[in-house]
Design a protein that fits this description.
The chain has 366 residues and is α/β, with parallel strands linked by helices. Helix content is 48%, strand content 12%. It has an eight-stranded parallel barrel with strand order 1-2-3-4-5-7-9-10, surrounded by five helices. Bound molecules: S-adenosylmethionine and iron/sulfur cluster.
């Protein structure tokens, strides 16, 4: 009981003020189901109060796994010569986007490995323009295409993309350095995030949780970073191993580690909701890779967005960021209907036909 009332006092601090890092560390380190449940319950109440209990779908189109970068944790990194590379045609990408529009998803996410060459930049611009034309400007388009010049971000914004997701991965410069080769520069990632905001994008960032070398103090700093950046959207997920990456052997017993990462991700989602209130928070696929009902657990801890994978089936298995990525064998409509049933089962509804823009974006812009 003592423990529970102590937890409530700490949660109150996170909700009412700019919390101390120590408070966040204590909450992230909460031991026992009872105390964690208090946190999730408070986060769910905050979600109901600030964004409601509607889940917004973003159809996720993983349109290419070709990447210039070499992040140590990622299965589609440039140096993974065993990865089978693909790129959807423009027509395929547009078709998938229109399928989402016709299925009343409201918005889509175009995601791919990072490329900065002219052909890629032009192709993305054309895909966005075509989708805007064919949906009469009604489809919400989010991009998740890595680090680009401000000029490129501006072109894609002008073409019609209004949201951008770029995870900082970790807000610790030191940890960032350990997870990336020397040519991946932390300050450049920050430059991109601030350029995106400056251009008027609804801006999303996030981190991986349970990375080798990451502590509760790092995660507390990540939450404070989201606050400082004044983020509109958050996409956080547990770190998962991929056997063909340099980090494949970082943990001896990854089966145990991944359960811990799952629990920690729920706490991060809950704390982000209590602290940041009206932002959009995704229940990411990586949660489902650990537990079959992982995304529902994320919704109950404060998330309000889901990203059903609508990439054409023949490509899906090749966008393998980590082992056991789920939903690789299902057709998109099967995937959507199974999701709707799961959402109804926890007493929530799907915001069909709505963009589900982050309310925070409008509040911060006044
Ligand atoms: N290339 C773009 C980028 O890096 O921003 C977008 C695609 S990238 C695959 C999307 C996200 O996947 C990354 O931001 C990273 O957080 C996540 N990711 C990559 N490898 C992962 C892993 N092994 N476990 C969990 N998430 C991973
Ligand atoms: Fe490329 Fe993104 Fe994977 Fe890094 S995380 S290797 S940038 S796809």
């Amino acid at each position: 009981m003592e423990n529970i009332s102590q937890t409530e006092i700490l949660i109150n601090e996170v909700s009412e003020s700019y919390p101390e890092k120590e408070t966040l560390v204590k909450l992230l380190s909460l031991d026992g189901k009872e105390a964690a449940d208090v946190l999730f319950k408070e986060a769910y109440a905050a979600k109901g109060k600030y964004v409601g209990k509607k889940v917004y779908f973003r159809g996720l189109i993983e349109f290419s796994n070709i990447c210039e970068k070499n992040c140590y944790y990622c299965g589609i990194r440039r140096d993974n010569k065993q990865a089978h590379r693909y790129q959807m045609t423009e027509e395929e990408a547009v078709e998938a986007g229109l399928w989402a529009y016709e299925s009343k998803y409201g918005s889509i996410v175009l995601q791919a490995g990072e490329r900065t060459d002219r052909a890629h930049i032009d192709r993305v611009e054309r895909i966005v323009q075509k989708l805007m034309e064919k949906s009469e400007g009604k489809l919400g388009i989010t991009l998740s295409l890595g680090e680009q010049s401000k000029e490129t971000y501006a072109r894609w914004f002008k073409a019609g993309a209004k949201r951008y997701l770029l995870r900082i991965e970790t807000s610790s410069k030191e940890l960032y350095k350990q997870l990336h080769p020397p040519d991946h520069v932390f300050e450049e990632r920050l430059r991109c995030l601030y350029d995106l905001k400056d251009l008027g994008y609804q801006s999303g960032t996030g981190v991986m949780i349970g990375l080798p070398g990451q502590t509760a103090a790092h995660l507390a700093d990540d939450l404070l970073f989201f606050k400082e950046y004044n983020v509109d959207m958050i996409g956080m997920g547990p770190y998962l191993q991929h056997n063909q990456t340099p980090l494949a052997t970082a943990f001896d017993d990854f089966e145990t580690v991944k359960i811990r990462n799952f629990e920690l991700t729920l706490k991060m989602i809950a704390l982000a909701r209590i602290m940041l209130k009206d932002v959009n928070i995704a229940a990411t696929t990586a949660m489902q890779a650990i537990k079959p009902f992982g995304r529902e657990a994320a919704l109950l801890a404060g998330a309000n967005v889901m990203m059903p994978n609508i990439t054409e089936k023949k490509y899906r298995g090749d966008y393998k960021l980590y082992e056991n990525k789920p939903c690789s064998d299902e057709d998109y409509d099967e995937c959507a209907s199974c999701l709707e049933g799961r959402i109804k089962a926890i007493g929530e509804t799907v915001g069909y036909g709505e963009h589900g823009d982050p309310l925070h974006y409008f509040r911060r812009r006044g």
